[in-house]
Task: inverse folding
């Protein structure tokens, strides 16, 4: 009887440990709007005027980052990000910690004031 109780206890503890992992499911995609800047200068270059500096810093070893909503995110697809330096972007992907695994980068919809 003690053996059965021990096995049941181990089973319950194992199930309790696995359940939260199963409940999370796959990471969902989100879209963040912001500016691509470089890891050296950061938010200072998160605008159209900072494009030349961002490209120069990238050539000197900086990585490209997304500045969105006051936060800075590492970008997984540096080649695609380089094509969008100098204009506002919408990046779709999975955000984990302070990084975004990119699915798509495109120019953000900018509504012009009449």
Result:
């Amino acid at each position: 009887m003690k053996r059965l109780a021990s096995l049941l206890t181990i089973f319950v503890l194992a199930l309790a440990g696995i359940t939260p992992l199963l409940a999370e499911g796959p990471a969902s995609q989100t879209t963040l709007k912001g500016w691509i800047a470089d890891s050296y200068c950061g938010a200072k270059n998160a605008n159209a005027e900072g494009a030349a500096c961002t490209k120069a810093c990238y050539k000197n070893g900086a990585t490209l980052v997304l500045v969105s909503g006051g936060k800075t995110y590492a970008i997984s697809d540096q080649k695609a990000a380089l094509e969008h330096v100098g204009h506002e972007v919408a990046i779709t992907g999975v955000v984990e910690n302070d990084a975004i695994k990119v699915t798509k980068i495109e120019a953000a919809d900018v509504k012009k004031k009449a």
